[in-house]
Amino acid sequence: xxxxxxxxxxxxxxxxxxxxxxxxxxxxxxxxxxxxAVSTQTGYMxxxxxxxxxxxxxxxxxxxxxxxxxxxxxxxxYAE
Length: 80
Hints:
Layout: E1 2-7, E2 26-30, E3 36-37, E4 44-48, E5 59-63, E6 73-78
């Protein structure tokens, strides 16, 4: 399975809008494993992982920089 996570970065903010990007630093954890850091430069991450049909998997996403910041992101999954 392929997972992608991306969040709004400064390039797509309308002119004059303040970004909270400096308050964001996301990590993903798949099945309680090691932290997978989302790039703060691009606001994007791509990860390939094994997933079996009929088996439950967990995915956790944390913003470690500021837990009170508005954290809008998109998580997508694709089967291989």
